[in-house]
Amino acid sequence: MACFTACVAEAIVAYGVKKVVASSKNTKVNSFAPKLQKLINLLLSGSFLLLIEHVWHGEIVPFYPFFTAAKDPESTRVMINEILTIGVSMDIAVTVIWFVAYILVPKFKKQGAIA
């Protein structure tokens, strides 16, 4: 229903962090900004695909309240529960995959642990 909104929220927070990191005078910290941009791209592209899927299945409509689950309180409760369970789980999974791919693997390659 609205699980993709959790990824959008994390992408917004990551964008704010990226702006702070990019403005840092410390070059080591400053070099972290492109890696954060890759996380933002992963989160937003996944959210966009989920948005299309939800529109396709009629869960999102172009008129108020936009989410069909927001029409009555019981459905809204289910939607919030989905955001907090499925959406946060997706956030954690994407962030862990990003961390492994862009933080751990380069570090291990530098140490010679990975060919």
Explain how this protein is built.
By secondary structure, the chain is an all-alpha fold. It has one domain. The chain has helices spanning 4-22, 27-30, 33-56, 73-111. Helix 1 (4-22) packs antiparallel against helix 3 (33-56), helix 1 (4-22) crosses helix 4 (73-111) and helix 3 (33-56) runs antiparallel to helix 4 (73-111). The longest helix is centred in the last third of the chain and has 39 residues, at 73-111. The chain is elongated and about 55 Å long. The model has no long low-confidence stretch (mean pLDDT 94).
Q: How is the topology of this model organized?
A:
Blueprint: H1 4-22, H2 27-30, H3 33-56, H4 73-111
Helix pairs in contact: 1-3, 1-4, 3-4
Determine the fraction of residues in helical runs and give it as a percent range.
over 70%
Strand content: under 5%
Q: How does the overall form come out from the CA principal axes?
A: elongated
Number of helices: 4
